[in-house]
Structures are given as structure tokens and as C-alpha cells.
Amino acid sequence: PLSLLVMELAALALLVWRFWSPPTVEQPLSRSGWIFLALLFLLPLAQLLPAPFGLWADLPGRAFYAEALRQTSEGADLGWRAISLIPTETESAWLALLPPLAVFLAAIHLTSQPLLRLVLVFLGIATAEALLGLIQYGDGSDSVFRLGNTLMGDSASGTYINRNHLAGLLEMALPMGLALLAATVGHGRPSHASGSRGGRRGRTFRQWLARFSVARLNQAALFGAATIAILLGLIFTRSRAGVSLAMLGILLCTLTFSYRLGGRNVYGLMGTFTAVGVGLAGLIGLAPVWSRFTLQDPIEDGRWKIFDATTQAIGEFFPLGSGAGTFVDVMRRFHPADFPGVTINRAHNDYLEWLLEFGLMAAVLVVVWLLFYVRQWGRVWKQGEWTPFRFAQAGAGIALFLMMLHTLVDFNLRIPANAVFAAFLATVFLHHPPDEERRRSSRGRETVGESESKPLSEQPIPPENQANPFAE
Fold first, then answer.
1. Scanning 37, 41, 340, 439, which has the fewest C-beta atoms within 10 Å of its C-beta?
2. Which carries the bigger pLDDT value, residue 38 or residue 188?
């Protein structure tokens, strides 16, 4: 498709710019992180390596195709063949990997402030998609705003063909909106306003009003409006998986942010109870939406048949896999006999599809990614005041978790736009502050600690002040 070609060319330009830029003092990724990216980048290329036909025929899953080639070659020398069953499809799959990889490599070198601005851009895109979806639903199936898409006339789909893919974008954006909303509610409140109980009693009316500055209220209102638009857009996709994951996302955000509002829980216990109440009310309100308004997936009854056929194909090609991008052609051989009239173009479970195409290495990469993911949560989840960027990191972690769950029943990460958005959120979540930011933060903590622990030095009293004038 032309859109994918444009994305791939833009990715090449982004990669060239990234590698021609002057290197940063500190590496943004650990050595294990670079090895992971290198394996991800090189794995499809390794499947294009040629092998003698005799060796190729002995590879797992190739005997059936080797026999067919022998029968049609009429004794001609079959020479060498790429490890992948269909090299052209593997090349296309490798090129489709470039946009998310380029976005990750370009963004991982940024500091937290530019990344936070890009998070706002991401939220803006998601909000625009949600509003377009709401217009589509309200304007009917013949709406010009559907951009020629006639497949999803009873639901919102945005610029996507499939409503589930719009739901995939919005379910990633929802935790980000909630995270920044929690970060801006009361953020920047004067330090004297969050002290002891006695300090709270001593607040003046002006100090109470200072918490609700115009800029802060505008920020919170904007994030709140964007979050509501994203949630409504997700509801009107009528995607069961999307609404279910939205409910889970609201629950996780409530548990994560309810006692950290503004970074220091500026509203105390009452603010925590209020946030929990709002979150639970949202979950209760979405329950009837899920049961009555969402649509059943048309292939839901056949999904387990697809899973069984894919598992059978995995066993045939394990541990090398059939080759990136070969799923559709391979599944023709394993198509269930009791599932006629349907072309299985996706496994509707990206993990199974990766195992079929990449074999054992796909399982290794998934396990390594999960280790990175769990380790990073330990770094994000630390004591102390939460800055807006740490809220964004936590929101990105929740968003990635929702996408990893959605990937069990759909193929959102096979959609180039959603793959790029997921790669960007992975950048935000895995970001390490540069040395200067860490030093500035640690220097501030050391200064505060020293000022609190260091005793006041004794100063000599001048002779003229040593006598008490009132004693004379």
C-alpha cells in the first residue's frame, strides 16, 4: 500500500538522520537492549539466507513443498533457496518493521521534556481519531466522514478499516490521558500546602485559591476533555475487547494514580477516596455498555479453530519457523475442514503468528521483552514525588500492558500505525533520564538533606553586642 511505502521511506530518512547525528555522551539503552533490537532487526534478514536445496528440503516443514518443487521442476537443478518459504513476503515484513524501529531509535535519544511534548502529540492524534469516530457513528453508515469505508457502518472506526484497530489505538491513549490528568490535578501546589495537619489548618483563603491557578485548571480541563473523548470514541467502536480493556485500564490507573494526585497526593485521603470513587463509578457504568452495546466479533466462534490450525502449523515448522510474512500462504495447507468459505489471513493472536513465522526465536524475544518490561516497572515504581513524566511513564506501561493483552485476540501490532504508536510508548516507558537530569535531581535531594541534617554553626558575637543594654 502507498501509505505503508510512505512510512517506510520516512523511517529510512529517520534512521539516516539518527545515525548521522552526533552521538550522545550517555547510551540511552543497555547492552542487552541493543542486542534485543539487533536480533529483532536481523531475524527476518536471517530467514533470507540461501541454503542448498537438499539442506533446505530437510528443514522442518519444508518436505511437503520440496516434493512439490521436485515434481514440477522436471529434473532441473533446483539450486539454492532462501530459508523462508516465500522470500518476497519476508522482505516486505522486514520493511514493515522499519517504521516502529526507527521511531523507537529516534525517540530513545530524547530527553524527558521533548518526549513529554510528543506524548501530547500522541494524545492529540488519538483525540482526533476518537472525535472522527463519534462523528461517523452519529452521521450514519453513509456518512462522508467514513472516508469510503463501508465495512463498519454500525460503529466508529476513524481512519482505520477495522473498528478493533481504532479501539487498539484508543485503549493505548486512555491510560496516557488519565496519567496526565492525575499529574496536573493540583500539581505545582506550594510546598507549605502539603505539610502537617497544623499547616493545613493554617492555610489562608488566598492559599486555597492559589491551588487552582488558571494554567493548572486549563491543563487539567484539557486532559479531562481529551480523556472523555477518547473513552467515548472507544465505546462507540463497539469493540468488546476494546471496552473490556478500557475497563481494566481505568482500574489499573485508579490503583496507580489515586494516591499520587499531583505527584504528592496534594488532596490527601479525601482526594484518594474521590479518585477511587470516580474510577469505580466508571467501571460500573461501562459494565452494561459491554453487555448490551458492544458487538460480537463475527469470527468469534471460529477463533479457536484458527488457534488450533495455527498451533498445528507451529509444530510443523518449529523451531525455525516458516518465514516472516508467510502466514496467509502457509495456513492454506492447514485450513480447518469445518471452517469453509473463509480465508484465514491472520491468527488473531500475534504471539501464535510470530511463533509460526519466526519459530523459537520469537518465543525468546517475547520472553526477553517481558523481562525488560517487568524490570522497568521496578524503576518507575519508586518512592518520592512523581513528576509529570513519571506519570506518563506509568501510563505508557499500563497502555503497553493493555496492548499485550489485546494481542492475544487480535492483530493490532500488525497494523503499521498502531505498531508505531506502541513503539513510541515503549520508548516513553523505557526512558532513562540523562546524567544531567539525574544529577540535578540527586543534587536537589542532597541539598535538602544537608539543610535538614546539618546543625547551625555557631557565629561569634561582636564585643559591642555582648552587653545587655537593658541591664544597665
1. 340
2. 38
